Amino acid sequence: MQPLAGIWWSAWLEGWAVNAKLDGEFREFMHARWPFMVRLAYGLTGDQGHAEDVAQAAFARAYASWPRVSRAGDPDAYVRQIVVNENRNRFRKHRVTERLTDAPPEAAAADAVRRCDDRSVLIGALQRLGPRQRAVIVLRYWMDLTEHQTAASLNCSVGTVKSQAARALATLRQDTELVDEGFQ
Amino acid sequence: MRIDDERDLHGQLEAAFEAITPRPAPVDRAVRRGRAIRVRRRVAVAAGAAAVVAIGVLAVPSLLHRSAAAGPVAPAGGNTVTVQAPGPHSAPGLIASGTIDGRRWQLTAAKPGTGAAGPGEQIFTTSGPAFEGRGGPQPWPALVVNGAYSVPFRGVLVIGPVQVMFGAVPADVTYIAVRLGNGAVLTLHPAAVYGVRAVAFAVPVGAGIVDAAAYSQQGEIAAAIPFNESDGIAYFGLSLTPGQHGLARASGRIGSGTANGTAWSVTAYLGPWGICYQTNAVGTPAVFCPPTPSDLDSGGLWGYTERSPSLSVAGGHAPASAAWVIVSQPNGTTTKIWPVTVGGQKLFAFQQQTGPNPPRWTAYDSSGHVVRWPAG
Question: Looking at the structure, do residues A122 and A165 belong to the same domain, yes or no?
């Protein structure tokens, strides 16, 4: 008779690696959905570098739980939710980097990308929204999630989604750069 | 396009995001990171299983003779929080460990200057199920004792739903008591960590830290009341000696502008914590609370930098008689700023230009004479 601990350990070791089939499935999924998740993260972060970091972290987490994620049947929703969560955590981590200094850190080199077309003006206006309003706009109006789905994704009430969406749209309507570009 | 037409907004967003061309999918890197996450989870499971076995072996005598080293149990709102100083056989660098609702956490410091630490930094590693797999190493200014403040929580890490606070205490501090919103108290005993005595604790974000007091063998040395931001994260600023009062509570916007298309603003919050500066730019606001009175009295500059979009904001605290401030920007230009009075304090914030030199500032009174801080 195999000792109980031995059974436990062998089960553990058996599950150690994602088997080759699941591994291939994950790789295929990531190749297919990477652009979409980066774009979603871009909508939330407003920065392509951050977006790719967030998307990569989300896919890594999905891989870590891939057998379960795959079994559940909607890996897209799973990764999308991690992108939203990762973005929120990114800001939480980022925000504590302040420190007192006689010499404030030198600013990064100027962004080489000029916001010179309608699309980037819209992205710029999105960036000027608060993170939650931006997330509501992206999830509600780009991804076409329902108010309930958006609320579940952002872990808030439907009422909050409605109010944040209304405020965000009002802010966008008044955004001077959008007005200058003839958006309204 | 009209923004009030939601279908058009969808189309415009679609077009804007379609223009983003991501780099090729880093599948191998994601797989490697995913495997690392699995390993960490499994190690945690194994450690948990080992702990269960150990508890099974030790439970009866432990229950009969409750260890004097056991940390306090403090319900924080709906959560139960414990903290424990390292024992004699703990791993080097362990500052403290504990549990939040039974899920373990620990904070470990690496030897200063080792690992990926930059100059003056140290790597701090958070680990344990309490961090929901998000713990890990992070550089932070090295643990240094500053005699000006006995309540030392200069280290603030927010990891998922948990806030970790840590710092080094002066030699005369025997313990620190942290009071939470529901009246529960965590007692922190300093641990020797690479030449300093350090303390740490972890609580759920939103636990509502009321205050922290440092005690020597003679009694209370100092206490600090944190600035609790609206989303539940606490920041400690000044340490107050017994009988000393902080500033009266007040708040106000001290600067704003737009840089590279990004709007920024800085709001100052005054109170018993001193002055906390909240910078709103990209994402969640960033908060900074200068730790010592001398930082306030010398008008010490603080800085905030966002890499993308490129944005750097700095600010300071001018003497009461200052009418305006001339800032010498890093690129050699000068900027004239009129400080804003908030709670009787003259505060200012400005967009920092890119350049090789650190910014400097000089305050002038209404007659155009240079004003200096009494100490400086």
Answer: yes
* Complex ipTM: 0.73
| Band of residue B375 on the pLDDT scale cut at 50, 70, 90 | very low
CB within 8 Å of B270: residues ≥ 6 apart: B247, B248, B249, B250, B251, B276, B342, B343, B345
Q: Is the Cβ pair B263, A57 closer than 8 Å?
A: no
Tally of domains in chain A: 2
For residue B311, give the nearest of A56, A107, A124 by CB distance: A107
Asked if residue A85 and residue A122 are part of one domain, the reply reads: no
Q: Decide which of A95, A130, A157 is a domain's last residue.
A: A95
The structure tokens listed for B343 are: 């709670």
Q: What is the DSSP letter of B232?
A: S
Q: Where are the domains of chain B?
A: 68-244, 246-376
| B 95-134 near A (Cβ less than 8 A) | 133-134
Residue B306: pLDDT over 80? no
Domain of A146 in residue numbering reads as 118-180
Q: Is there a contact between B308 and A108 if contact means CB atoms under 8 Å apart?
A: yes
Residues A89 and A25 in one domain: yes
Which residues on A lie below 8 Å from B305 (Cβ)?
Answer: 104-108
Chain B nearest-CA distance from A73, in A, is 19
The three-class DSSP label of residue B29 is: helix
> Is the distance from CB of B282 to CB of A94 less than 8 angstroms?
no
User: Which residues, listed in sequence order, are joined to residue B166 by a DSSP beta bridge?
Assistant: B155, B200
Q: What is the pLDDT of residue B128?
A: 92
* Chain B residues touching A31 at Cβ < 8 A: 25, 27
Residue A134 domain flag:
yes
Asked whether residue A2 is assigned to any structural domain, the reply reads no
The CATH number covering residue A48 comes to: 1.10.1740
Q: Is B33 on the interface with A (CB under 8 A)?
A: yes
With bands split at pLDDT 50, 70 and 90, how would you rate the model's confidence at B369? very high
Whether B105 shows a pLDDT value over 90: the answer reads: yes
To test the contact with chain A by mutation, choose from B40, B278, B284 the residue with the greatest count of A C-beta atoms within 10 A, namely B284
User: Once rounded to an integer, what is the mean pLDDT over residues A59-66?
Assistant: 86
Partner-chain residue, chosen from B30, B286, B309, that has the shortest CB–CB distance to A111? B309
**Mutate which of A95, A119, A140 to test chain B, going by most B C-beta atoms within 10 A?**
A95
Say yes or no: A76 and A128 in one domain.
Answer: no
Query: Following DSSP, what letter does each residue of A95-164 receive, concatenated?
Result: GGG-EE-SSPPPPPPPPS----SHHHHHHHHHHTS-HHHHHHHIIIIIS---HHHHHHHHTS-HHHHHHH
Asked if A81 and A136 sit in the same domain, the reply is no
Peptide bond into B319 cis (omega under 30): no
Under the banding of pLDDT at 50, 70 and 90, the label for residue B282 is: low
- Domain membership of residue A8 (yes or no) is no
